[in-house]
Design a protein that fits this description.
Elements (H helix, E strand, L loop, with lengths): L1 H9 L2 E4 L11 E6 L5 E8 L11 E6 L2 E3 L2 E3 L1 E6 L15 H18 L20 H7 L5 H5 L13 H12 L2 H28 L6 H20 L18 H4 L8 H20 L4 H12 L7 H9 L6 H8 L5
Parallel strand pairs: 3-7
Antiparallel strand pairs: 1-2, 2-3, 4-7, 5-6
Helix pairs in contact: 2-3, 3-9, 6-7, 6-9, 9-12, 10-11
This protein binds zinc ion.
The site of zinc ion has 4 residues, from helix 2.
């Protein structure tokens, strides 16, 4: 289903090839061809859990190809996960979340494998932190569209298509507590920036606000108080500000997201906005797909993200689409 969507919309054909030599029998190998039949890249998939394997799902690049004098060098990458494996005669039945994750990782892979940028360090997924999740999150949108699900979401025995009532419940469940989670992401993103912009310089300088003694004794308390104060505008009542506990905000200490947590929500603003053009022009519209590949997907870091966005959308980003997704349309 996913390969069919990518073929219809973006014009890339994906074909499996038996190459014999892989690191585990579960591993498969695929090649990607553009409309002219030229091979632009290849990738391995490694989807099932094993004892020695890392958790989660991820994409990696092995070879960064791209336009070279005298032709095009194909890319090579891999997408991995830990999904429900088939069990004997029973097919692997993936949850919707798992399907979404596969689309997500495939989005990263396409970003890498369709790059036409000549300089490898500027190609594919080597882009700004707050732009790198756009192609992956954009792909997830197709897993929420009726017409796209119809291509592959079928009963594994009867072949019956996804019932309409179930589809409607899925969409409704997606919005459940949408306001709450959006405010949470907003709070975490903003407080992260404020920690770095406001509190860090204050603590470093000893500042007018705290004496050196105060800093020595109570740095932890100062940070906690700062968190409480700054989370408060985003929560429904003062008690809830206590729930946002900075000491376990590990993204900032060990996740590499210090001063960059906002990029989660920002990527969503961008992809939800970009997907509105697909919605308007058709989610499988080949011209829209081509325009997306030419303006964004194949361009890597060859231009400012803002400029690439504008080239595709003809304007600056607008958060309305994300608000609509999380909170529902404004009442008429
Ligand atoms: Zn990702």
């Amino acid at each position: 289903g996913m390969f069919e969507i990518v073929h219809m919309t973006f014009g890339f054909k994906v074909a499996e090839r038996d190459i014999g030599e892989v690191w585990h029998p579960d591993v498969r190998y695929y090649e990607i061809f553009d409309e002219l039949g030229e091979k632009v890249g290849a990738f391995y998939t490694d989807w099932y859990p094993r004892k020695e394997k890392r958790q989660g799902a991820w994409m990696n690049h092995f070879i960064t190809g791209g336009s070279r004098s005298g032709g095009f060098a194909p890319h090579l990458g891999v997408i991995c996960g830990n999904f429900t494996p088939p069990d004997g005669d029973h097919a692997a039945l993936l949850t919707h979340r798992e399907v979404e994750t596969i689309f997500h990782e495939f989005g990263h892979l396409l970003h890498h494998c369709t790059s036409r940028v000549e300089i490898p360090s500027r190609a594919g997924i080597n882009v700004a932190w707050d732009w790198v999740e756009l192609p992956s999150q954009l792909m997830e949108n197709w897993t929420w569209e009726r017409e796209a699900l119809y291509l592959f979401a079928r009963h594994h025995k009867s072949g019956e298509a996804l019932p309409e009532s179930l589809y409607e419940r899925m969409v409704a469940a997606r919005r459940f507590m949408g306001g709450w989670s959006q405010m949470r992401q907003l709070a975490l993103g903003i407080v992260d920036l404020e920690l770095h912009e406001e509190l860090a310089p204050q603590l470093r300088l000893g500042s007018a606000r705290y004496s050196e003694e105060e800093l020595d004794l109570a740095q932890g308390d100062i940070v906690m108080e700062f968190g409480r104060e700054h989370f408060e505008p985003f929560v429904v009542g003062p008690h809830f500000a206590e729930l946002h506990i900075l000491p376990v905000f590990t993204h900032l200490f060990s996740g590499g997201y210090a001063a960059a947590y906002y990029s989660y929500l920002w990527s969503e603003v961008l992809e939800a906005d970009i997907f509105t053009r697909f919605r308007q022009e058709g989610i499988f519209n080949r011209d829209t797909g081509r325009s997306y590949v030419d303006s964004i997907l194949s361009r890597g870091d060859s231009d400012e993200p803002g400029a690439l966005f504008k080239e595709f959308m003809g304007r600056d980003p607008d958060p309305t689409a994300l608000l609509d997704r999380n909170l529902g349309s404004e009442p008429a």
